[in-house]
């Protein structure tokens, strides 16, 4: 027999962690990091086995969360709210303003969705962490229009391995040996799956990431990044809808930099790629990450503009398509495409896979999955059919606006 | 901006490959390696874009497959059928006898399933590879009893990176620098999902793995391993069914070694572990891997016995449960458990994840997924309910037979 370390399934799966997340970029790339980093829930297990709360320190980068009955006015640490003289400690710090923005976006998007749904209401879960940070998960399930809609915000204070920080520094002469680097991350993340197969799924996520200056390496820089995006995943193509959606994204981008839309549109097509199918999850939108080579205030405004564009980009499409009559065949095709959504999220999405490996709050991580999905063996749409046209556009991304 | 290598999503996901599969054990551990290693199908894309056949050499360890209209009498290379004096080249070599065994098992299991289904018939896809090897995929979909049943055999001639071979050798003094190691793998793999929520899903997989002696390292040993297992995944517990299933597994094990059942039962509970849920996929069975520290003939007989035990372990349970009346609530719970099945297979199962990363035949890899699955936000069964009992047994594995 081989040594246990080589043959044990569990050792093999945990050992990938330090290898896979060995660069800071991998951390900041996580499309739903702020959403998902949390703690495995223990309430379920406590009814079964009092001693089964297994916290694996090696795979946990942040503290365990505790449920809250009320939303706090902020998830920032007190020191981040006061005025210690540090830039991050002012009420108008980027941290504070980003948190305010994502919470306002959560409120406005949830209100708009409840309004268009007419029947469904969001259920809310709030949690915090002893050392600061926390989150609000809101889910509307089985409404009149929406099958499942999750809109989450989260604020995380964590610590990353020093290798991650070192790997991301442009020049590393190997002289410095920093210890673990504290980081701050905040974000809003949402996936909205409607019932009607002609009404598209939308996903958006906007996040901000900062490292503290390492205490044992005087002079090493504090770093910050913005990331995010909004993308559309229909089961059927209505060109007007897709053009409208992309136009709103382009409009938000063009207010800041003419290069943003083409660059972030392509980044989106590249990111939401289901490699084993050689197709994209949907029809794209915009996606950006590790963005720090522009003015910080400009990028904060840009993120805010993008997040505020979700409602005008998406709600008019839902209004138009939510009551379109459909057949069982249309529904089955939507369910097959939902299967692709599951494949992308569980296999490739870095926020999801990272959250699952690090003990994030599972229900928040997996709220992105549709209520139901389907896998048929070797399903091939008839060439030229509406289903085929969607698949073709997922395989060969198009320019929707000129 | 960070260097592209750090920020590009695709580079990040492909770079994990050599890290994650850096030991031979990781390769031989793959629960459906022989099933899944293949090639991305190109037929779909060829109708869309003639130049879109993108074979990424870095993630391909075996040749592209070609569809066949008829089953060949063997997938072995001609040199493996003849008599070159090498042990592997005799008609009664372990390679040849293992292939014969798995093809007989495929035939008998498919016949038994069609018989109990009454209506559904298996659809067959056959493929081969120019340099030897190939496979037969059989799928019964939307039958009277079975929602989706896949039974596949596959024979693979591949090449593994030398690091994999070196890492798996018990003593590596670092003096030898072998080149890539040719390997042979063959296996039968199957997942059977019935429609009735009281009728359990079963999975089985039996595989044999051999390396050639490395040509540039005279004297380095040829290696071989057996792996496999059979496990049951019900949505509801009928103790009699679970006891019957485990008894048949134990019976097969006990014919060979009294230590096998307890050891392989625990291995199964450990392997089919959904870490992010802290629960097992189902109620287990047996699982073993990297098995080479017994007589090779004994292990061939043992694998054969296990594979032949699938029908007596499973079919009587299906006969008993296939027509049990059920409600929409029972069906919804089955669908939620199917969601867990999808989570395990896409996130943890090494055969699936390896197959997806290496360009395996996608439809064969993902035939293990159920026809449909469901994810409800924060679903918690009522304590003491039948659903809770199943979940409890998945969280706290039980000894089903004394």
From TrEMBL, chains A, B:
The annotated regions of Basic and acidic residues compositional bias extend over 61-80
The organism's place on the tree of life at top rank? Eukaryota
Give the UniProt family note: Belongs to the aerobic coproporphyrinogen-III oxidase family.
Q: Where is this region: Disordered?
A: 43-93
Quaternary organization:
Homodimer.
Task: Please name the top-level EC class of this enzyme.
Answer: oxidoreductase
- In short, the EC number is 1.3.3.3
Return the protein name: coproporphyrinogen oxidase
Source organism of the structure: Solanum tuberosum (Potato)
Q: Which InterPro entries match?
A: Coprogen_oxidase_aer (IPR001260), Coprogen_oxidase_aer_sf (IPR036406), Coprogen_oxidase_CS (IPR018375)
């Amino acid at each position: 027999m081989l040594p246990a370390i080589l043959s044990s399934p569990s050792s093999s799966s945990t050992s990938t962690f330090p290898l896979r997340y060995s660069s800071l970029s991998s951390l900041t790339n996580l499309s739903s990091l702020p959403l998902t980093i949390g703690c495995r829930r223990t309430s379920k297990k406590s009814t079964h086995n009092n001693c089964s709360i297994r916290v694996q320190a090696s795979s946990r980068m942040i503290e365990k969360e505790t449920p809250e009955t009320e939303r706090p006015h902020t998830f920032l640490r007190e020191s981040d709210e006061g005025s210690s003289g540090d830039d991050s400690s002012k009420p108008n710090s980027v941290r504070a303003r980003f948190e305010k923005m994502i919470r306002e976006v959560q409120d406005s998007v949830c209100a708009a969705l409840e309004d268009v749904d007419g029947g469904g209401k969001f259920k809310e879960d709030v949690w915090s962490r002893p050392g600061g940070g926390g989150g609000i998960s809101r889910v509307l399930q089985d409404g009149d229009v929406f099958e499942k809609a999750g809109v989450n915000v989260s604020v995380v204070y964590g610590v990353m391995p020093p290798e991650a920080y070192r790997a991301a520094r442009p020049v590393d002469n190997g002289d410095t040996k920093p210890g673990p680097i504290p980081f701050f991350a905040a974000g809003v993340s949402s996936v909205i799956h409607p019932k009607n197969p002609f009404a598209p799924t939308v996903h958006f996520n906007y996040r901000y990431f900062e490292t503290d200056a390492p205490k044992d390496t005087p002079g090493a820089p504090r770093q910050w990044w913005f990331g995010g995006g909004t993308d559309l995943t229909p089961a059927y193509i209505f060109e007007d809808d897709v053009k409208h959606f992309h136009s709103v994204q382009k409009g938000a981008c063009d207010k800041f930099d003419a290069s943003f839309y083409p660059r972030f549109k392509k980044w989106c097509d590249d990111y939401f790629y289901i490699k084993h199918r050689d197709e994209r999850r949907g029809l794209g939108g915009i996606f950006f990450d590790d963005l720090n080579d522009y003015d910080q205030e400009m990028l904060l405004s840009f993120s805010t503009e993008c997040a505020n564009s979700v409602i005008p980009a998406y709600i008019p499409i839902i209004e138009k398509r939510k009551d379109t009559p459909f057949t069982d065949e249309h529904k089955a095709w939507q369910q097959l495409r939902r299967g692709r959504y599951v494949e992308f999220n569980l296999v490739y999405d870095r926020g999801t896979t990272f959250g699952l490996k690090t003990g994030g709050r599972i229900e928040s991580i997996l709220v992105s999955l549709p209520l139901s999905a389907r896998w048929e063996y070797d399903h091939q749409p008839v060439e030229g059919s509406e289903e085929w046209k969607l698949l073709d556009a997922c395989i060969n991304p198009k320019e929707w606006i000129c």
